[in-house]
Specification:
Interacts with CCND1 and GRAP2. May also interact with COPS5, RPLP0, SIRT6, SYF2 and TCF3. The chain has helices at about 15-35, 50-75, 80-105, 110-140, 145-160, 170-195, 205-210, 215-225, 230, 235-265, 270-280, 285-295, 300-325, 335-365. By secondary structure, the protein is mainly alpha-helical. Helix 4 runs antiparallel to helix 5 (about 145-160), helix 10 packs parallel to helix 13 and helix 11 runs antiparallel to helix 13.
Length: about 375
Amino acid sequence: MANAAAPTAAVPTLAPPLEQIRHLAEELRLLIPGVRVGEALETTKEFNPETFWRRLNEAAVNVSREATTLTEVFSHLPLPSPQETQRFCEQVRAAIKAMIAVYYSLPKNQGITLRKLVRSTTLDIVDGMAQLMDALFMTPTQSSENNDLISYNSVWTACQQVPQIPRDNKAAALSMLTKNVDFVKDAHEEMEQAVEECDPYCGLLNDIEDNSDNHGDEEDDGLGYPNNRDLYWSEEDQELIIPCLALVRASKACLKKIRISVAENGKKDQVAQLDDIVDISDEISPSVDDLALSIYPPMCHLTVRINSAKLVSVLKKALEITKASHVTPQPEDSWIPLLINAVDHCMNRIKELTQNELELSNSLF
């Protein structure tokens, strides 16, 4: 009896090209949470910085090349076949996973601050590639003015940042401290400008006055337009702003001095102490922002007092950590006590000016 013909193996049907692109975007986004919390791979091999940075640069170049290829083949008709699209997607997937693998090979003992910077750039690259996939899926074969090229530029820009990443934890710490100095400087300048102009909501009054020309006074109240107390500082407010500005200036001075100390005395092998300095310094700018926002009218003096106290606490902790570290070789003769005294002076003045409101608040409970 003749044998029956062997059944033909079923060939899996590939999804259409654009569907494959959409699925790849979803897959890439699923990688992001793992990168955010992922730990360095444990290995017995000695870490070689030169090899690591060479591999990271090569991985970024490969991702950029794949982004270019994908953008080119999906920017005109006919679209690639499902088989060709599968190959392109596999190459993108491999390039992204290789980039992530190199990041994971950076051990913690090279510094948490450095790892954060490498991680941030890696996340930008993964997210940028996912955005490119979205754009190609939504607007394929369209002109160069569309989102695909914009997203491609996002991937390319992120890849171009890799050679700019600091190469050791001291350089990474200085980079972060410089950013924090700039943030606090900007906040201080905005506060000073508002005070000098005596107009915390510059331009808002003109808009309201223009609108009020079309409404009566009774209608204005019903529409909820702010009154003068909501738009301007009282004399008491203006008096309180003075030590607040001084406290923000002291914050800027603290960060500058910490940065100088790290630059002049920081040692690359003291990664843990450098990480501690950066961690506490990262809290200064958000605390300054909270204080700056609380001085805008209508001002609540108790909120200003609370935010000032929080900022002072962060500043003192940052100064104490710096004082106890290797970047301050002679803490007893340093600038740190002077800045602590300046911060205390500002806080004491803020307490004096807000004491009546504090007592009033306590009497209500």
